[in-house]
């Protein structure tokens, strides 16, 4: 017998709540996110380059009532050409761009929000901390969402407690991916996170007990601490992020392992420019390595996406970055830029995987409309092949009362 769907439950609860809502008129709003993107991938492992032109529309209807009830029903559709391997279109001779065509239910949840906390039940977007362990992979056209029960509670102004039970993850590969395990996974995962804020500093502790019911070898338990903050220093601002974690086998995982993780990232901001240096380590032992399958992976270890799966020897990523804004303010924002360089090595052994340059320029065009130019250049040494990626993107976000 299959388990009850977390998507159907919010609809039943909404129907049950209707009599209580009869005395008030809930506030409704229509939300949309329209994104057009050109992505070009030149990977030396393939004879031809991929050139993906895609258009994504995400639209939803949100409601909120004075009594605290709220919810969202949202759909998502992606269309475009087929000059790339989407994982669903059978174009395996071309480099991968995981933006498959199709339409699907993206979010459908019912929630309640009070003075000190809130809850949501159903298919929803979940972001924890910097999304290193749990995120929505918002960079891809088809985002990652979860069938989940999510709770947040703030017993004090400086303390936030979060818990989520994950029943299923709907992955970016879409419902038509050739590999059924790439479409979605049945889970029984518990996420716990506690964050304490003091001024510009935040200390967070977490335990992510991830059980994958479809792939037992992917089940892990990760425990960690994260400390971030900033302090003024003369005419500048010094910031830092320090994080450490330990990941072990969990539930019915047939493997036995224990891998370490740590991140050191100091930063300094002067005259509107932020410079940062980072050192991130994902442990490996030569046969198995620390993994973050629920993360927003594109945001870490370079935009060329060569390390979406951590190599068996682990990953040592040392990087430098610069970023800032310039020009006149337009539509409430200025043009932004980023530049970063990564050096990738094995955590186990002495292999030098390669290095990578990343650069981007964001442009506010009008209210709710933005443009983006982005580039990644990975130079391989002992891992994968040379890869260059270029993106051109225009996005329009907005909302309105019907």
Automatic annotation (TrEMBL):
InterPro entries: Alginate_export_dom, Porin_dom_sf. It holds the Pfam family Alginate_exp. Keywords: Signal. The keyword Signal applies. Residues 29-248 form the Alginate export domain. Transmembrane segments: none annotated. It comes from the Bacteria. The keyword Signal applies. Residues 1-22 form the signal peptide. This is Alginate export domain-containing protein. The lineage of its organism: Bacteria, Pseudomonadati, Pseudomonadota, Gammaproteobacteria, Lysobacterales.
